[in-house]
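Can you make up a polypeptide sequence alongside its tokenized fold?
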Amino acid sequence: MDYPVISLFSGAMGLDLGVESAGLAVRVSQDFDPWCIKTMADNGRPHIPGDIREILAEDPKCKQLLKTAGLKKGEAFAVVGGPPCQAFSTAGKRQAINDPRGSLFMQFAHVVDETRPRFFLMENVKGLLSAAVVHRPLSERGGKPSPEELPGSVFKLVLSTLQALGYTLEWSVLDAVHYGVPQFRERLVIVGSRDGESLFLPKPTHFPNHQDPNYRWRSLRSAIGDLEQDPGPGGVFSDERLALLRKVPEGGNWRSLPDDLRRAGMGGAYESSGGKVGFFRRLAYDEPSPTLVTSPVQKATMLCHPTKDRPLSVREYARLQQFPDSWRINGNPTHAYRQIGNAVPLGLGRALGQTLIAVAEGEGDRSYKRLRGTSVHREITTT
């Protein structure tokens, strides 16, 4: 059976490749970033380049998206994508632009409404859960906050907007490491069903401890160990940072430095709060990677190779996001790091695609019904 998909904000196409590996067929992808567009073109993928706001302003009925995908309204199996919401990230400063009514989230919702897919799949940063629509600095706070100033008001608005489209929803924060990805990477996932089907989200398949090695968390070594001597192009650390990184053992960070070097190496960050685990971080081969960022050479987000005095290469980055070696990422290392660092790992995309197919085929619902009344079902529902 064909499961045609429309992809928005596709980037380097990590989510697209992931759902395709589950059996879905991405008919058209879309992005604004010129390097992502070149990546799509270099890999021979049908795509519509440009700012989605301008595309929809000229074509509010999404005729071009549907035509390129070879679909009519209501025929798409799913619309998938992660509308850029950097302001929601817990790593950044939150501003009033968090209001999703003025963000690219609304374009995602508009496409869903106009194309009426059977399902939609939206992924985003976990910080969206706690963001407020209106941010008021601490110095200006006082009295009772308005509903839009409360933590979580952004997410409530997102859910209400999606529910108003007539879709039933299921959502959760998923960590890619639980789906065979050699990386800790948490993402908020929201799925919707047009037809009121019994939704569920992927169940973990990989664990820190398991009697079968095939179901244990995947390590950094399993993904990039063979590239140690031939990593390909990548960024470089400054001589000053390299001098300190050489003193950090595998799996360590700035806290591993001698006492007299910590303050000098950290600078003003030494007195700041927070874990600061990314400063002078050298990775551990036999653990999953930390979340890939858009640059592994920045002072607060270093991703130094476990045994070599260099950052992870572009190819190693791609391996940790599970891109096939044959996938061409366009641009110089800076452009490539950013594309790969923003991508959804293929393993998580595959699990999400498999789940949508299971829902569509009624497998999840049938499995539940088969268990009803059994001791197994009673155990599940009482724990």
Observations:
- DSSP finds 14 helices and seven strands in the chain.
- Residues 132 and 151 are 5 Å apart (CA to CA).
- Residues 346-360 form the longest helix (15 residues).
- The chain has two domains: 4-210+345-371, 220-341.
